[in-house]
Fold these 2 entries.
Entry 1:
Amino acid sequence: MSIFRLFYSKTPKIKDTNGKVLPNSITSLEKVKIGGIDQSLLIRGHDVNNPVLLFLHGGPGNSEMGIAYLFQRRAEELFTIVHWDQRGAGKSYSKKIPEETLNIEQFISDTHELIQLLKKRFNKEKIYLLGHSWGSVLGVLVVQRYPELFHAYIGMGQVVNMIENEKISFQYTLDAAKKAGNKKVVNKLESLEPPYVGDLKALRFQRKWLARYGGALHNEKSMMVLMKKGLVSPELSLRDLPGFIKGMIKTLKVMWGQLAEINFLEQVPELKIPVYFFVGRYDYQVPFELVEIFYEKLKAPKKSLIWFENSGHCPNFEEPDRFQEVLISEVLQEIRWK
């Protein structure tokens, strides 16, 4: 690793087959002022005239900027893709951010402000919005409030009802531990009470064993694999790592109780734009069965439930080729053929 990579990050230029930078391409790592504080963006695309897709990461506080290079290079040909490290996460982490601003309403406001900036910068009337895990909570709430801003919404690892979410996820983990004959883990799990509000140590224990038993990433036994991939990302440097870790811990601690109040089956009967759910067949971190119920109940002008048969909670990482193909062939067509 070079000295430069230890302390600085830089996203690679997009070049043609002759090694020349594409004239209308954009490759930018930058900070913008959102909600009164500096927040970081990664923007990549072959042509700034292409549709804009804003990616809302999970967590809360869990930046996905460092693994973007693994799952979007093909999609960059047809979208301008924006990754945003939200307030308090990743490159946007700062110990100066007041804890009281880490609330769902502030994140909705930040998202709306960022979208207005993107619309103006790229001269767009509307954009695409993709929310992953916690980002799917934020995404649904923003789309519900501001439907006129979007071509379509993509929910991946879609959160539906957090109380039921944690009950199902817990039961999957407990059943798997019993099947494996791991009495020590079974005993510990049976002492826990989802949704673990005020007890994030219990949440971390359940998530650790959920991952070990294939309920998070289907083909990996630890979410640490994502962090390891991020360590060699061109968009990250080692000096970014403390902020990534501190951001995950702090934001989740402050916001977990707020998430426990989410129940879209009651709160969101309708979305007024096309909706796509990208669902991992083995996702028990955000259980797929709740997404099926939400899909059936939700009113929308168009809706699609798209299965990723070899994925858990992260289809973009676990099936990157299919993830990009679906974005291009099914989602993008919403405006390409109008």
Entry 2:
Amino acid sequence: MLKSIAVMTSGGDSPGMNAAARAVVRTALYVGVKVWGINNGYHGLLEEDMFEMQSKNVGDIIQRGGTFLGTARCRRWQTPEGRMQGFKNLVDRGIQGLVVIGGDGSLRGAQLLSQETGIPIVGLPGTIDNDVWGSDYTIGCDTAANTIIDAINKLRDTASAHRRVIVLEVMGRNSGWLAMVSGISGGAEYILVPEAEYDLDEICIDMKKAYEAGKRYILVVVAEGAGSGKEIGKQISEKTGLDTRVSILGYVQRGGSPTVIDRVKASQLGEKAALAIISGLSDIVFGFDRGNVVSINLHDAVTNKKKLNPEFLHLAKVLA
């Protein structure tokens, strides 16, 4: 049984990271284990920016978006020398295990640290893209999807009033999950994702026919990895002659108070991570499979690519 652990958030922030970190801290303290907080991800670890935590340090944060521990990019962590320095900084404080909350890149960095030093590592998938292999859910994805839906609801009003085509670009460089679930639930006519090919010329022909039949507006949701929203909007305007507007949602998708789902699921994952690392388990990521918390091999999680559910692709075509 480990006597002292640390927790950090890394990579892009996502709503629910605070709930997960809070659960790690309070679970560890509940069983009598010391727990350290590392500020600003791997950068903070290398800069020795860490502190021993008490229960009060994680009070009044479960409802807050972002991450109270902070996050930052760190080029030094990509080198073996950087990771060895981070390991030394942990050992110097008697820290025996590390919980990392972050996305694919953050978990890959954690896997390398474990591989090179042997220190126990447990990961939690914190990313709005919901693209970590082996888990149906990642911390923050539900809040981000609801943020997009709120934007869609507002854009629908102005689109209908002016009979416009609205192109909404959302996050998702390599994964179309956010675009797909928000597009389906928002009633979008077209959802463009990096996992599926599309013919913009054919889409434009269909749009013109729809307007000729009396359609008042059309909503197109585009994952950033499927193409530039501005360029797609420009081509639609040129090819159809329809009044077309583009909205790029941007970083607002990362913010906001986490939903109930993100608060509860992040808390569940945080508790499991703390108990696992304290018991000496390592090289695993905790996620969800059909509603149940499951452990995933860390190496598998960072080396395999999660696929978009093909049922979503089919449903989007049926409901368009």
